[in-house]
Amino acid sequence: MPSFDVVSEVNMQEVTNAVAQAQKEIDTRYDFKGIETLIELVESTLTVRTASDQKLEAVREVLRAKLMKRSVPVDNLDYGKVEAATGRSVRQVITIKQGIEVDKAKEIVKFIKDTKMKVQASIQGDVVRVSGKSRDDLQDCIQQLKAKDFSLSLQFKNFRD
Fold first, then answer.
1. Of 28, 29, 100, 135, which is most buried by a Cβ count within 10 Å?
2. Top-level CATH class of 12-96?
3. Is 127 exposed, middle or buried (0-12, 13-18, 19+ CB in 10 A)?
């Protein structure tokens, strides 16, 4: 029976490269001269530290541009609240979401059922498996899922006949 998996993954190597590029650009920008600004990546968490809210916004824009340039889905970024750090600096934690959470997976399954397509969807961990009798039905399902915004970047893998 033909099937495919709906996943939400982020290539962490590309994130590492984008963070390095963003840090390099910030270090050379004129408006950041003499201001200590740091982007730190630990596992799937980014911590941004800088002098003010305006500088923080500028760092986020640079980081976002570098991530988009490297085809990293920015929908998977979860911005934490801005906190006061040591001295007069501010800090923000940005979490990179990997996998599909149960609530989002249920929303995807419900959407597939509501479209009345001849496919079945099931939640398997952080993956949604969709199976059907014909390849065309599965391809139509992929197109429907791409058109709907789930506020999460979706990829389609393991397409099997």
1. 100
2. alpha beta
3. middle
The pLDDT of residue 29 is: 87
Give the span between the Cα atoms of 62 and 82, in whole angstroms. 17
Mean of the per-residue pLDDT values of the chain: 89
Per DSSP, the chain holds a count of helices (H) and strands (E) of 4, 8
Q: Give me the mean pLDDT over the 141-159 stretch.
A: 88
Two tokens, residue 32: 């950041």
Residues 6+ apart with CB under 8 A from 19: 39, 41, 46, 63, 66
Share of the chain above pLDDT 70, in %: 100
Pairwise CA distance, residues 125 & 143, whole Å: 23
pLDDT > 90: what percent of the chain?
40
Pick the CATH number of 3-8+99-160 from 1.10.155.10, 3.20.20.120, 3.30.70.860, 3.40.640.10: 3.30.70.860
In this predicted model, what pLDDT tens digit does every residue of 7-40 receive, in sequence order? Answer: 988 889 999 999 999 999 998 989 888 888 889 9
Residue intervals of the chain classified under CATH 3.30.70.990 are 12-96
